[in-house]
């Protein structure tokens, strides 16, 4: 088993356990619940098979749904951000800054990495809360929860990436 597969497997299991055992029980101000498991999608290697990330992202989201009894909303949101992460990365970095083989989120400029994390996190959270409320009448609650939970998730994601990943 090579090092990349081992690292991704440990990260997958670690983030899943962190989410379901600890973070699902954190409710700041009664409703802010960080969804840190999406960091796995952000850190998955670019050069790997696209169908593998889609399948594994779906399984990650489905696992979170299983523990939250949320009916597939996390699976749908995680699958969607896994699908659009490469076009978002191309947009944020531009063609000149992007090298598939050498990409590491720690090796790009902080503002570009923060933009990438922020865009995918807010899209993920918007999908989760839209499917959770499933009503146009709740658009203010959807936006409110998306932004506040997103900010908290982004802060934890950036701190986790800085502390637990290597800079190449």
Mean pLDDT: 88
How many E strands? 0
Low-confidence stretches: none
Give the C-alpha Rg: 15 Å
Description:
The chain is mainly α. The chain is 68% helix and 0% strand. It contains 6 helices and no strands. It has helices spanning 3-21, 39-43, 50-68, 73-93, 110-133, 139-164. Helix 1 (3-21) runs parallel beside helix 3, helix 3 packs across helix 4 and helix 5 runs antiparallel to helix 6. The protein is globular. The mean pLDDT is 88.
Question: Secondary-structure map with pairings?
Answer:
Layout lengths: L2 H19 L17 H5 L6 H19 L4 H21 L16 H24 L5 H26 L4
Helix pairs in contact: 1-3, 3-4, 4-5, 5-6
Based on the model shown, name its key terms.
68% helix; 6 helices; mainly alpha; globular; 168 residues
Short description:
With about 170 residues, the protein is mainly α.
């Amino acid at each position: 088993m090579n090092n990349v597969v081992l690292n991704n497997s440990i990260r997958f299991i670690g983030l899943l356990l962190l989410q379901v055992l600890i973070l699902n029980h954190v409710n700041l101000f009664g409703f802010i619940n960080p969804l840190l498991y999406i960091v796995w999608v952000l850190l998955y290697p670019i050069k790997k098979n696209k169908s593998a990330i889609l399948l594994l992202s779906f399984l990650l989201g489905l696992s979170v749904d299983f523990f939250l009894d949320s009916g597939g909303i996390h699976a749908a949101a995680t699958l969607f951000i896994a699908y659009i992460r490469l076009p978002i990365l191309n947009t944020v970095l531009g063609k000149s800054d992007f090298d598939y083989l050498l990409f590491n989120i720690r090796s790009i400029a902080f503002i570009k990495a923060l933009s990438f994390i922020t865009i995918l996190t807010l899209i993920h959270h918007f999908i989760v809360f839209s499917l959770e409320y499933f009503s146009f009448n709740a658009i203010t609650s959807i936006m409110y929860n998306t932004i506040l939970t997103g900010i908290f998730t982004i802060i934890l994601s950036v701190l986790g990436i800085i502390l637990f990943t290597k800079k190449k």
